[in-house]
Amino acid sequence: MEFNYSIVDPNAATFLQLQHFLEEYEGLQCVAHDTEPRKALDSILKYNPDVLFINLQECATECFSMVRDLYQYLDTPPVCIGLAQTKDFAYEALKHQFFDYWMLPFSEFDIRKTLLKLGKRLPAPAESPVICLQSYKDYQFLDTNEILYLKADNNATDFILKDGTKISAFKTLKSFEQQLPANFVRVHQSYILNQDYISRINYGKNRCTLKFAKAELPFSRGYRQNVDALKQALSLKSLSGNN
After folding, report:
1. Tens of pLDDT along the chain (243 residues)?
2. What is the set of domains in the chain, with CATH numbers?
3. Locate the HTH LytTR-type domain: which residues (predicted)?
4. Order of all β-strands in the sheet with 156-161
5. What is the pTM of this model?
6. Which residues are registered as beta bridge partners of 134?
């Protein structure tokens, strides 16, 4: 199983014990630890963890308020697991749709059962398609999520990555067009871009701006239909900000 988690716990001893138990499971990564619900809310909105462990013993009211706030700001709030020395907060945790409620001190058996249930509930991380660039006896494998755009260079193709790296392959742009996943769109005779990184489409200048390196790529009349479909798809995912 793989997921990111955050811990809200003012008690250092409890936090360290929980970390100790969770370290036994591969694929689990702690992205934040906060001692106060108010600070925790900011961390959760920043890192968007899959799972949130909350020690309710000392500040239950504030913690439940924080959980309610999460439903206002996140489409998919983290799965919440409550910790407490008594069952006093169990009913309130149930009302707030907590996934589980652990009694302190920790039970390794309870932790194992909950994590196994979580493994079934949380979606498996999507694997990034990989493309192979072959040059004679040299094989290079690229994670397509790292590709910003492709540029034709005569009979070769340059792959421009998010970090600015350029990798050349001795095949035409057209030969790669059918190999790429659906989020890659051809907008010009010489360019294919990764739509996940588009920040702006300017019809006046016939330009697409990408998030990384502020790259601006031209689009041509022959691929205007692709750009229109791209604009429509991105508009559906965004909030309207028309002037």
Report:
1. 778 999 999 999 999 999 999 988 888 889 899 999 999 999 999 888 999 999 999 999 999 999 999 999 998 899 999 999 999 999 999 999 999 999 999 999 999 999 999 988 887 665 668 998 877 778 889 999 999 999 999 889 999 999 899 999 989 999 899 889 889 999 999 999 999 999 999 999 999 999 887 789 999 999 999 999 999 888 876 654 454
2. 3-121 (3.40.50.2300), 130-237 (2.40.50.1020)
3. 142-236
4. 166-169, 156-161, 147-153, 191-194, 184-188
5. 0.55
6. 139
